[in-house]
Amino acid sequence: MQSDNSGPIVKIRDVQPDCVNFVLSECDLALANSVRRSIMAEVPTLAIDIVEIEENSTVLADEFISHRLGLIPLQSDDVDSLLYNRDCSCGDYCELCSVVLTLHAKCTSEGIQTVYARDLLVEPNHSNLKIGQPILNDDANKGSVICKIKKHQELKVKCIAKKGISKEHAKWSPVAAVGFEYDPWNKLKHTDYWYEEDADKEWPKSDYCAYEEPPNPDEKFDYTAKPNNFYFDVETVGTINPNEVILRGIRELRNKVAGVIYSLDEIVARNANEGNAENIGGAGFGTVYGGATQYGGTAYGGTAYGGGTQYGGTAYGTQYGGTAYGNNSAGNDDYNPTTGWD
Amino acid sequence: MGSASKSGRDHKHSEPDEAFNELLKPVYKGKELTDKIDTVEDKWNLLPAFLKVKGLVKQHLDSFNYFVDRDLKKIIQANQLILSDIVPDFYLKYTDIRVGHKSNASPDAPIEVLLPPHECRLRDITYSAPIYVDVEYTRGKKIIMHRDLEIGRMPIMLRSNKCILNGKSEEVMASLNECPLDPGGYFIVNGTEKVILVQEQLSKNRIIVESDEKKNIVQASVTSSTHERKSKTYVVTKNGKIYLKHNSISEEVPIVIALKAAGIISDLEILQLICGSNQKYQDIFAINFEEPLVKHNIHTQKEALLFIGERVKTIRRFGAPKLSKLEEGIEAVANTVVAHITCEDGNDLKEKGLYLAIMARRVVMAIENPKMVDDIDYVGNKRLELAGQLMSLLFEDLFKKFNSEFKMNIDKTLKKPNRANEFDALLTINVYSSHISHGLERAISTGNWSLKRFKMERAGVTHVLSRLSYISALGMMTRISSQFEKSRKVSGPRALQPSQFGMLCTADTPEGEACGLVKNLALMTHITTDDEEAPIRQICYNLGVEDIRFVDFSSIHVAKSYTVHLNGTIIGLTKFPGNFMKLFRFLRRSGKISPFISVFANSYQSAIHIATDGGRICRPLIIVENGISRVKEEHLRKLKLGEWGFDDFLKNGLVEYMDVNEENDSYIALYEPNIEKTTTHLEIEPFTVLGAVAGLIPYPHHNQSPRNTYQCAMGKQAIGAIAYNQFKRIDTLLYLMCYPQQPMVKTKTIELIDYDKLPAGQNATVAVMSYSGYDIEDALVLNKSSLDRGFGRCQVLKKHTEVLKKYPNHTKDIVSGMKVDAETGEPIWQHESLGPDGLGEVGLKVDSGQVYINKCIPVNAGDSMLGNNPNMPNYGMGNHRETPVYYRAPEPSYIDQVMMSTSSNDQSLIKVLLRQTRRPELGDKFSSRHGQKGVCGIIVNQEDLPFNDNGISPDIIMNPHGFPSRMTVGKMIELISGKAGVLNGSLEYGTCFGGSKLEDMSKILVDKGFNYSGKDMLYSGITGECLQAYIFFGPIYYQKLKHMVLDKMHARARGPRAVLTRQPTEGRSRDGGLRLGEMERDCVIAYGASQLLLERLMLSSDAFDVDVCNQCGLMGFHGWCNNCKTSEKVIGMKIPYAAKLLFQELISMNIAPKLRLGDVF
């Protein structure tokens, strides 16, 4: 795909507290989309998962309130310091795998009182970390509305927030929406403009048109061309800052690839031990992934990676695209999937 | 919901009091006082004004109010006296009747109801008020007046003027746990809400001419209905001659004899009356003079009366004196034939003769010109019977029965020779005081209207008010059921009638057998109540109508002379019909007579008809005079400022009510520019052709009409908010949506019926495209993240009622506490959700198999109390047996509410409400507002779904194949308007024949950087590539329907069997088997899979081992044939148990089925 080995390039166009706009270029469409999917579905965050209801005399049912509490965004910058509840050795929940929040609201006055997310109090076990505090992004710093109560009504709950990913439930999604666009001039003709009279007049121009050359009508259509610039517009819900969301998304993606490579390698190793390596795919399998063994096994294997911090930050882009993975993906291109992957 | 970016960015906190502020605004729904007044645009404001005065169920309330305020008094008057057969000078006379008030109560004193309505619902009590009568009777020689005697309790219609909610503010309603948006118009009987449906029937006391061209019969019929009688009189042709036919006369009476009996003796008069001077009519009628003369030799009235008297079928009532034949004849003509014409002294039967002659004339006219028949499907020939009328029939029946039993009781007491005390009639009255209450209660709760005096039995008059959604309850209040039989295969009554326009909704009717027979009222319909006839008659005479009684018969059918009919009965003649009608209408418009009295001319019959009777359907229209609408800008301004209400428009003669007949006689312009010189009226608002339920549909005028009909049926099944008091209700089944939204594309009707305050659905972002193949056949693809965030989430609440009985032997049912595990001290698993009182604890989970009411009944409930010490009933566990209520369902529930109370008969009542919260799952049913239903076919992760360049992904993907054949263009426009509204931050309108214009919507889309067609470029969520086609993408209001997989899923491997046949039970509720039916069986036979057949039909069902004796062919037992007393030839075999049962049943009727067994091969 790319002639040089420089790897993907990220150009950040705009950063705000809850969104980032960047251009990802010099990479494949599949990779760009994988990043998008990974951001949406794989980045772990913290969200209330279990609610112990002590007193609920509001008009809303327990499940209703629990559902609402679950959807409240909680500060998840340091969520990596928590274990997944399923991996934790505790029986129910503990401070290694969860954050406890409490809420106690009682209306003693006439009229209607509103319970907001800011009324959630984080129990101080993780006080030195940025974790578990409800996100209050609105002007009044109140956060989301949980419910409304009138005189003598009371809501007293204990919430256990756990680490999770959005694949399981949308409450763990770090992002609200991920804008994704490429080829604003439709040079690649991936889409047919539906029009009645004139497509150019009837269709609005993309904002990103300014960043690319308009098509030359005299130019011949290049049917081998591939998309190169991918315009991302990531908006977070506030739990993790936008840059971090992207980085963690890429990290999760890389983890997954590493997982695949690691398991494949294991199979190869097992087969080699059993002496029937020829049963798998082609004979070249082992050699092509020879480099990968090292990669999966050492650098990414198991716990060393789990901490995740070492991969954050700036060094990432080059490290990622340049060395280990770049080679592999190149190798991957040559590889025939039909024969190889079974 | 799917467009998370929108919710994220535009999240502004609305002030908590916003809803209140809106209510305080002087003008409703976004209209400012300073806005320019445009009569064309703003005349629709009359509609909310109309609904403000009348409410949505005004027909029911008006009818009931009329019944309690006026009809009751009439009934009392008609049945005023009770006399004794024993003591001649005894009498008891009813002088007055009141509901809910004592005589000395001030007019604004609260109604004496026992309990507020919501408490009645919860405690299974009837919401009723006492009926008080004032009586006057003799005690000895004295006349005694007695006031406020309670003779029973009357169920009260909610929101009627006898209801405590009448005219109450929202705060008061809230304090009574009532929803201010609830329309009322129903009764609460034993805790259930019952609606008396509007009954449609043919007009009473009107001549209807029909013809049967095949049999060559023309008949005029009239159904007479008075307080005492209902009877039907026919004037029919038979072999070209005209006869009078009536059920109580055994054979048909030649019309001439009938007329002679009624005192029109001269043949000339008869001819003049029936034919006038029309030669054709005379030729047709002449033959009728022959038979009476030649065959029966009848000339005089007496002979005619005798003739009839001999043919009367007499049903003598007990104790009535025997009548002579002549008297029978007089009786028949005076009281039975055309019974609604009353002849005061019995001798002057002329008016009756006149009526019969008119009937005969109509027959002659129809013979001459077959087009002169009436259309029985014409809405003008229909009358609607409402709750008030039905209640009044029932009440009169019960009151008569009450009186006759009261009288018998008085007679019984008076018969006794020596009474110690002076007789006081009131001492006996109270014995029957529950008669009326129970009669009314039973009729409403069962729906069986049995009226002794008309020998009428009608079932299914009342229905339980459906509380599935707000709309379903509202739809039920506007429903009209036809008396027509559902099974008959005629299209006429089911077809859409042009005269329905504006009166009955053109879209809202069920599919299937009741199609076209069950109708719904349109938005502005009003149903009249009875008005007094006498003053109208007098007004007619004052306006120059010649009294028919003093007119020479020869002048009746003169050219240019119009007959004037009042409620179908001829009252006079006028030479100036146009002028008369003009004057009459002037009186009505100036408020001198009731606005609901209609007048119209029928030029074919040369007749003017005036109607004052109840049950006519009518609607308001703006009066147009000399080509100018009477409603002008200044009037609308007054309306907007709140100075004027709808009644002021009526009073000032700007607007008038028109019934169907009068409407048919006028020239109505749809919009102001269409007014011509001859225009008489102007429509207030065209969208009122639809009813409340069809009014929810956005852009219905762009849809194929059956789709609107389907939506009307589905809107009633949508889950949403039910009422403001929904969490206080304990209903058998309650579906509530967690996050209902008002639709992005509203209609004016939606605002008028407050659907925007109690919505049932959510605005889903829809992509119209194919995805995954799990969307064929109308299936929908749902976004998993949307479901996570609460899309389509609903609560299902189920009630369980348990009554703790008391038994005659002083034992009673009890609720015992939970059982505790001896070692741990924890309650046993079955009792985990119980509290210490033996009832489910609110908030706890109940799993299948757990107990939530631990009820115990006494072991010895049947024992007599003799021998036991009644003062020491033993409540110990030893004397009680546990009969706990188990929870059985595939999914657990939570206990939402537990109520303990006492019902009306003093037994403890326990109601437990169980709650489930459900998120949509595969197979749940959804529908848009355009009759497009579909089930969820697959739930897809958000990252896999297509998205647009902003990252918005759809909540629902709908397959485009849903469009071409359904032609629901309204749905597409809804999407575009909705999308424009979302981008613009406004709510758009899809009102019928109006609403936001597509062009404007497209303009908004273009302004906001979208394509005008509503299509977007989407990217595949799986590959990231953009989709080749452009996708129709935007918000559509989706309803979640009550049909959910969880309530339907069912499978069985082994399970219970029926006792008698030992075959698997039937139905999901009994964990039944899935039947391999006859047609399936045919398939298996045709395929030749005999072993499969054997397995399915016998082995998996009711296989049974029998011992058959091959000698006698009968079944033995244990290898022994009891018939042959041998075990020699007994062979064991397998047959279906049902076959064995059949053999034994045959044996029991002395048929011996014998089995001959042989080798197969």
Biggest β-sheet of chain B: count, sense, barrel?
A: 6 strands, mixed
The level-1 CATH class of the largest domain in chain A: Alpha Beta
The coarse silhouette of chain B is globular
Backbone CA Rg of chain B: 36 Å
> The biggest beta sheet of chain A, please?
4 strands, antiparallel
Determine the strand fraction of chain A and express it as a percent band. Answer: 15-25%
Q: For the terminal residues of chain A, how far apart are their CA atoms?
A: 25 Å
Relevant CATH superfamily of the largest domain in chain A: RNA polymerase, RBP11-like subunit
What's the count of strands of chain A?
A: 10
Subcellular location (chain B): Nucleus
Protein name (chain B): DNA-directed RNA polymerase subunit beta
EC number (chain B): 2.7.7.6
GO molecular function, one term (chain B): DNA binding
Describe the structure.
The complex is a heterodimer of chains A (342) and B (1161). By secondary structure, chain A is an alpha+beta fold. Chain A folds into two domains: 9-42 and 177-183 and 227-340, Gyrase A, domain 2; 45-172, Beta Complex (RNA Polymerase Alpha Subunit, Chain A, domain 2), CATH 2.170.120. Helix content of chain A is 30%, strand content 21%. Chain A has nine helices and ten strands. In chain A, strands 1-2-10-9 form a four-stranded antiparallel sheet, with helices on one face. A four-stranded antiparallel sheet of chain A has the order 3-8-4-6, with helices on one face. In chain A, strands 5-7 form a two-stranded antiparallel ribbon. In chain A, strand 1 and strand 2 (19-25) form a beta hairpin. Mean pLDDT of chain B is 86; it is low at 1-20 and 22-31. With 1161 residues, chain B is α+β, with helices and mostly antiparallel strands. Chain B has six domains: 57-193 and 384-453, Rna Polymerase Beta Subunit, Chain: C,domain 2, CATH 3.90.1100; 214-369, RNA polymerase Rpb2, domain 2 (Dna-directed Rna Polymerase Ii 140kd Polypeptide, Chain: B, domain 3, Alpha-Beta Complex), CATH 3.90.1110.10; 531-612, Hypothetical Protein Ta0175, Chain: A, domain 2 (Alpha-Beta Complex), CATH 3.90.1070; 694-793 and 921-1040, DNA-directed RNA polymerase, subunit 2, domain 6 (Dna-directed Rna Polymerase Ii 140kd Polypeptide, Chain: B, Domain 6, Beta Barrel); 795-863 and 878-918, Beta Barrel (OB fold (Dihydrolipoamide Acetyltransferase, E2P)), CATH 2.40.50; 1068-1148, DCoH-like, CATH 3.90.1800. In chain B, 43% of the residues are buried. Helix content of chain B is 27%, strand content 22%. At the A-B interface, helix 1, helix 2 and strand 9 of A face helix 1 and helix 26 of B. Chain A: Belongs to the archaeal Rpo3/eukaryotic RPB3 RNA polymerase subunit family. Chain A: GO terms for molecular function: DNA binding; DNA-directed RNA polymerase activity; protein dimerization activity. Chain A: InterPro entries: DNA-dir_RNA_pol_30-40kDasu_CS (IPR001514), DNA-dir_RNA_pol_insert (IPR011262), DNA-dir_RNA_pol_RpoA/D/Rpb3 (IPR011263), RBP11-like (IPR036603), RNAP_Rpo3/Rpb3/RPAC1 (IPR022842), RNApol_insert_sf (IPR036643), Rpo3/RPB3_RNA_Pol_subunit (IPR050518). Chain A: It comes from Saccharomycopsis crataegensis. Chain A: Its main location: nucleus.
